[in-house]
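Q: Hi! First time doing this. I have a protein sequence and I read that you can turn it into a structure. Is that right? Here it is:
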Amino acid sequence: MEDKKEDKKEDKKEDKKENKKENIKENIKEKDIDKEKTEKKQEDVSSNRKTKKEDPKKTISNPKVELKEKVKDDKVNADEKKEEKVKGKKKTNYKKIGIIIGSIIGGIIVLIIAIIILKPLINYNIGKNNLEQGNYSSAISHLKSLKNYKNSDDLLDQAYYNNAKKLVGEEEFDKAKNDLDSIKNKDVFEDFSDFYTYTDALVALNNSDYNSAKKALKSLSEKGFEKSEEYLKKANYLQGNSYFDTNDFYNAKKCYKEANDYEDAGTKMKNCDFMLAEKDYSEGNLFKAKKQFEAIDADFEYNNIKVADRLAKLNEYSKFVNLSGTWRGSNGIMNVRQTHDSTGLWDDWTNDYTDSCEVKCVINDDGTVKIKGVGKFYSYTNYSSLSTHLKIKEFTVPFELSLNKDDAIPNKLVSNYPTVISTSGTSGNATITNNNDSLKLDFYLKDENYSAHFTYTYKSSITYNQKD
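A: Yes, that's right. Below is the predicted 3D structure, encoded as structure tokens:
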């Protein structure tokens, strides 16, 4: 650049010298012209004098007239000199303008050529330097305008890859994924597949697609890839929050357990334990609620409710606690008998089964208790001499009653609940008896309408003596 400036200065000096020479030449020409005109005038004057002497007939010249003519000639000469001088200056100015315009045009042409030839090289060098210095975004902007220039494509892929890693570190997962998608030659990077899966999982995590994120991160965490284990914990933690907000405390607890030591997952697990117990308490699953509250520190408090207060209340309603729960029985027996009306001869089928009875005791705000339950049993619904033609069905016996806190729980929870099981439409009766440490269901139906010659009896009984 300094050489160019020196050349320009030399050119300007040369131009000034040329202009001076031209001006000197013009001045010399003007002096020659003036000299010639002066000599010519002198000759004319001499000629006139000779003519006057030789022509005696002419009158003597008038000095005034001659002076006027001389003044007039001098004025004409002065105008001509002025005009020639102006023309000379114009020629000089035009020449200077031409030189300037030519220089400008030449400079523009050189600049255009330089841009065409040097711009790719400049972008390449800047992009490469930025890549080496960790300015990946700037490197990408300079390199992506180049196509097959030296190894610019390889440098661009590297810039995209490095920038994606940087963006993941800044938790700009969507932008990182876009950069990875822009890489042409993906096979160059050994861990590209895992890193892409990792980035995609983090995008899913950001979009609350926890199951997809957890599936990918679990696989990567087994390889110890990047921070996959930490993000897996985060995914479980956030999904736990989502479940908790929708009162799905069971799944929330599972997620918090997987989150392990992530943030306050341990505390939130305890909150889930409390809310699971509280949910069972409010729904009347008192037996289950008591077991859950007993597993929590008595001093624990959540939503202004203390575990110790809940346990004290459940102890007050202990008989209802003992009644509530899911009772199960494995000794159920069902029987169907066909008896001939005339002869009294009979034939029957017997089978055993297991079933359950669920009882809930809801403690109301006024201290009363609402008992709701459903007993289940199996029974034959027809008779056949062939076992393959026998039909069996499960039936339900619902019950509900309200008691005060100090009322005794009746022995008969259900008395003669009508149940239709046969095709004749005849109704049988079901009862449920409370034996304190067990519940017993009995069903009986005598059908004399199905046949004109036979009477059919259906029996089923089960004792529920195991409680969840």
